[in-house]
Fold this sequence. Notes:
The structure holds two protein chains of two kinds.
Chain A: H1 3-14, H2 25-30, H3 35-59, H4 68-90, H5 92-98, H6 109-117, H7 124-154, E1 156-157, E2 160-161, H8 171-174, H9 176-197
Antiparallel strand pairs in A: 1-2
Chain B: H1 6-50, H2 58-66, E1 69-73, E2 76-82, E3 87-96, E4 101-109, E5 114-122, H3 136-140, E6 145-146, E7 153-157, E8 168-171, H4 176-197
Parallel strand pairs in B: 7-8
Antiparallel strand pairs in B: 1-2, 2-3, 3-4, 4-5, 5-6
Amino acid sequence: MSEAGSILKDNLWSNNPIFMQVLGICSALAVTNLLVNTMIMAIGVIFVMAMTNLTVSIIKGLMPRKVRMMVQTLIIAFYVIIVDLLLRAYLPDISRALGPYVGLIITNCIIMGRAEAFAQSNPPLISMWDGATSGFGYMAVLLAIAFFRELLGFGTLFGIQVFPDAFVPWTIMVTPPSAFFLLGFIIWIGKTIMNREGAPA
Amino acid sequence: MNKQSLIYTVIFTFLVSFVFVTVLAFANEATREQVRLNQELARQRAILNALNIDYGGPEDVQAKFDGVKVVERNGTELYQAQKEDYLVVAKEFSGSGLWGTIRGILAVQEDMDRTIGLEILEHNETPGLGGRIDEPWFKQQFRDLRIVDGTIEVGDAGEGDEDKENGEIDAITGATRTSDAMRVILSNELSAFQSILGGNS
């Protein structure tokens, strides 16, 4: 398998940032009660992660070791603020719904993890690819959680009513604790399948 | 040049910060006007909603809003609109909800006989629970609701109080404290209206 292909498989499945590395949990709990918000948040993370990895990889040769994490944080913050400005200017409703969570992309440890573990020692384009695919892995898990939370908590999917009016929404699905349970289930299912495949867990 | 030396580190850090911050400053400048317009539009929409004035697209919002008189009475800014046989005044309010400040617009008839509408500008209540103060069914309860004894009572949790004469709204299921906070905020708001308008009810 090509390098790009194996990175894709790694980041989506065998080394998925959320259910294998268990990173980025904070936002997985916070923004997953509506699919639309989750989608926008995940796209934001994908963009920030790809661009951060690209930038870090380009300037890695110039970076003094002592300040490299500081510079990585600066780069991440830079792209997050760009995303925040774009949302505020062109998608004000979504910006309002996401509230403080966009700013909190900065603290998403998947991004810094990939910058430090991958971009710091690989060429630019493949680093960008690694960042984007890590983001896809993150998005896949978040969307799975959001699917169940929105369906059971509101009776809707992407805001479209799918359950009849008689359906009583599960209040707990709307609040963050439900994401904990769902995340637990996803990790459980993921690891079980992985063990069955004989891959090292 | 030695990339690990102190001088290189300082210069590198300074330059990197300078470049990124400069780009951000320009990005902020470029989107500022759009962001301001969005906020202005959101506010005008909220005021029109509260005053029970229908509107279409952004231009229509502007046109309708121009028909609303902004007056100052007893040091408070009020938005005033003439209906067929009575005058409606709206005013911005803010108060503490469960998690943070709730800001919004409340409109009443000038003789304090009925509330005309409620609109929420900003809140940090739990999405899906207290956050439902932002939903149409909740706000609809304030349309032409009679004010009894100068206050609004919050009854049992429900799906919207249809009775417009009892001075009562339904609380939100699972959001007792947000509902209670709204009761306090709105009572204060009505007293404020009372003293500004020198009400005669």
